[in-house]
Amino acid sequence: MSEKIRVLIAKVGMDGHDRGAKVIARGLRDAGMEVIYSGLFQTPESVVQMAIQEDADVIGISILSGAHMTLLPLIREELRRQEAEDIVLVAGGTIPAEDVSALKREGVVEEVFTPGQSMEEMVRWIRQRVEASPASYARG
């Protein structure tokens, strides 16, 4: 793969806490990825549209509001509606373990990064996942 991995870090809903999202964005950038930050208060539709326009490989949703069981399925559905399911959807934030299991089991997100996980773990997971994607071979 010759191109940099492109990651959209997004905040959805009324969640105004973006310090963690900015830390993750900087960490991914420092790891050599191209990172786009959505800014606050995005809708599921605007996040997916932004990811398509930016040719993102990954959407990383930072969520601390507790609305993850509502907002993440809406983003997954919008990815399907826009025929953009090749974009990897991950989430991060304070998400209870039982919700993490449900979101992954139901195919809403591929991975959830919770507090305590290292930046190295996130970078390694994203690189392995994107490089394993058939879409990355088509671009690279």
TrEMBL record:
Pfam families recorded for this chain? Answer: B12-binding
In terms of Gene3D superfamilies, this protein maps to: Cobalamin-binding domain (3.40.50.280)
Q: Which residues form the signal peptide?
A: none
Q: Mind listing the GO molecular function terms for this protein?
A: cobalamin binding; isomerase activity; metal ion binding
Which superkingdom, per the lineage?
Answer: Bacteria
- Entry-linked InterPro entries: Acid_CoA_mut_C, Cobalamin-bd, Cobalamin-bd_sf
| UniProt keyword Metal-binding, yes or no | yes
The Swiss-Prot or TrEMBL record lists the needed cofactor(s) as: adenosylcob(III)alamin
**Alphabetic keyword roster:** Cobalamin, Cobalt, Isomerase, Metal-binding
- Every B12-binding domain range: 4-133
**Could you tell me what this protein is called?**
Methylmalonyl-CoA mutase
Say which species the protein is native to: Limnochorda pilosa
